[in-house]
Every structure is written in structure tokens, then in C-alpha cells.
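Attaching the record inline, Q. Sequence:
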Amino acid sequence: MASTAFKTYAKDHGGRVLLLFLLFLLALYEFATAGFSAFAIVCLAPILILTMLGAFRFRMLTFWGLMLINYVVQWKSMVLPQGIPVSLYNEGLQIILIALAIIDVKEAKFERTANIMLYTLLIWCGYCTLEVLNDTCGIGIDVGGWYTAARMMAYQLMYAFLVYILYITKPKILTNYLFVWGALSLFAVFWVWKQKNLGLTPAENSWLQTRGRSTHILSGGTLIRYFSVYSDAANFGIGIASTAVAFIIFTITSKITKHKIFYLIVALACVWGMFPSGTRTAIACLMAGLLSYIFLSKSIKIAIPFTIAFGLFVFMLAFTNIGNSNQSIRRMRSAFNKDDASANQRSINQEAMKKYMKEAPWGIGMNIGYQNVPANNKYTFMATVPPDSEYVFIWIHTGIIGITVFLICTAIMIIGACRIVFFKLQSPSLRGIGAGFCCAMIAQQLGGYGNQVLMQFPNCLIFYGGLSLVYALPYMEREWIEYEKEQLAIQEEKKRLKLEKKRASRV
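Structure, as predicted:
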């Protein structure tokens, strides 16, 4: 009876039954031979196919889906199925979006990708590709391990660049993106408020009491560093500080009142959000980003009051005791204490690293860590010591040559973007958007000097993608000016109608 029913179903649905049956057998085979991870990937294959079919029809919806997933995937990783790399969700959507652009090459704006940022990223990705041959530790070449590290350290930067520059092509999409970014940032700030005032979820508390205990519970348990939807407090504090830099600049330069109000709310919320993180580097990131804007503003009217407000903020933290009753503010204020023991420990570790790195100019290799370096290996110390900084992490794994290539490429892409803002853009508000992206990236890079945050979720996509948009702004400036005129006309019409209604009510 069951056989007859199966034959009838197969006759009605054709090859789909056979395909699903073969996928089922493949999943069982992978589970038996390669474990749960491979089994899960095969089981996800139909979902991936359906996602791709849907993406063909709703491309921008797929792009907004990527923005959302990128922002919350690290948070949800605490409850997502184990064995599946967290980055797979993000990376899969990025590759789908890039593939769709290539398929529809006539409609895609590939001419916008030919810029200095693409060339520098190609150099960096090329160097990391050559690292597959690096066997400094003498433990053999692991192609799988190398790729895992290379896609997080290099290839995802290229994905971010391509996705943003190919899909944010019009002023309306750019404005929508700023609102989506702002809304996600507000959610992150709300969630850190919730953690602080209403408590952690069971999964968050479990992480805090285990992996995060030594770095997030301080002062004998009286100070907790909150991390919101990010991977840790440093990642959150620096990311939200860099976001604050961007939205402060957007607030200053936007001409549309409703946009200006929204940007101001996001900026103030993000500045507040730095403090529960207890990340002292966040203060330096905020300062660096805002100082950079004084140069890029090209306006004395903006630079003078901006400098005064910035100076008062720094003076309050560095030379007064205002807010000292708050434990989070006291910790932030310790960033100005040169004798702080924990802040100086990193320098001590780096001095020890230099002795080993003299003999490893190409680094110890990518994806080399405590799990695959024998205890008697010469570079065991380098594989196990906490890098504490993205730059130090890159230096350890790619050597003095690698970190030099990375820093030069980073400097070139940032200077190239600043040059566009300073010389090429004529619209003050569009120049403000470009300056916001540039200054946020400068803030984030400073954060990478102090903490391991550059390649983490959600920062990598947001800030490298944002910088790529600066290179696209000259292409949309004419449309932007027209779009802004339309919005200002609507704004003025609403004011006129409101004024007429007010006058009529007085009669």
C-alpha cells in the first residue's frame, strides 16, 4: 500500500521526489562519515536553493536581510545549532548577492567598483592567499584551516565592498540604509539597557559566567561590562562609538529635519551605549573620529563649535570628577590614566612577542592556534598568547610583512575616501555622509589597534561596506541633489500647511 502511494506521488511530482531522496541519502552518508556539521550543511541545501530562487526575485529584500542577519547573528549564535559556522549565514547571503549581480551584469553598476579600494583589497586578499603556503610552525599545510582564517581576515572585506557598492546605488536606497543602520544601532543600545536594568537571558548569563567571566566581571563582581547583541563588550563599545561618530556627523550636515532628528537620537543613544560596555578604547575611538571630521568638514562654522563641544567633553572626562558616582564612567575615565596596570599589560605581552616574530617574517600561519600547535613547538607561545588587538592578531599570523601590507592598504583606502570627500563632492549633505563613513572607519581602525574588533560581526560589513560607499557617492551626487530638493520641497510644503492651519485656528 505504501509502495503504491509512493509511486503515485512520484508520478505526480516527477524528479523532485528523487532529488529529495538522494539528498536524504547524502545527508545520512555525511552524518556517518563526517559528523553533524556536514550533515547539517546538506540538510540546509534545499533552504539555500529556495533562498537563491527568492533572491532572484527580491534582490533588495535579500540585501536588507543580510543587514539584519549581520547585526544579530553573533547574538543569536548562543542559541543557533552548534557545528554550523556563524559566518556561514552572513557569507552565504553575500555570495548570493554578488552572484546575482554577476548574472545580471548589464543592470549591475560594476563600473563603480574600479577604484583604489578594490585594488588595495585585491593586494591584501592576494597576500592572504599566498599564506596557504606558510608552514613556519612545521606542522604541515592545512588548506581548510587556512581558508577559514583567510575568509574572515581578507575575503569578507572584499564581499562587503562589492555588496555595498553594487546594491546601494541610489539616494533613496542610501537614505534607507542609514535608517536601517540607525534602527539596528538603537536596538543594540536598547538591548544593553535591558541587560543592565532588566537582566541577561539564560544564554547570555551562561556565556558571561564562563568564557566572559575573566574580562567582563570586574572589581570583585561589582562591575559588569555589558555586550548587547555583539560578541563581547569591547566589540560593542568600539562599534557603537564608531557608529556615534557617523551619526553625529550626519546630524550636523543633514538638511532634512526628520532625518536630522532621527540621526541625533541615534547619535545620543550610541554615545550613552559606550559606557555600559566599560570599553575604555571606545572613548579614544570617539575622539579620533570627531577630530578627523574637523579636518574633513571644510567649514569654519562647523569646525569651531564642533571643536569647542569636543574639547568640553574631553575636559569633563580627563580633568573633572563629573559623573564619578557612576562605576561605568569611572572605568571609562581610567583610559586617561597612563599608569593603569591592565592597560599596560598589552605592551608587555607585545614586547615578548617581538622576540619570536623576528624569525617569522611571514607569521606563524593562518588559523594556527593552541588546538594545532604541539606543546614542544618553538611557536607555542605565539599560538596561545591572547593578541588583544586586531593588528597584533594579523601580525602574529601573517608576520611583519603581512601587517605592513595590511596597514599600507588600509591607509591608502581611507586616504582615497577622504580625498573624495574633500575634493570631489560638492553637496554639503552628501559630503557629510561621506565624512561620516570615513571618520567612523578611522575610529574603528583605532579600535583595532586596541582590541580585536575589525573583523567581528557586525562591524566588518558595516564599516568596510560604508567606506566603499564613499567611492560610489560621486556617481550618485546629481541624483542626490535632485532627491534632496524634492524632500526639502515636501518639508517646506508641510511647514506652510501647518502654519496656515495655525493661523486659521486663531480666527
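The chain is about 75% helix and 0% strand. The two ends are 85 Å apart (CA to CA).

More tomorrow.
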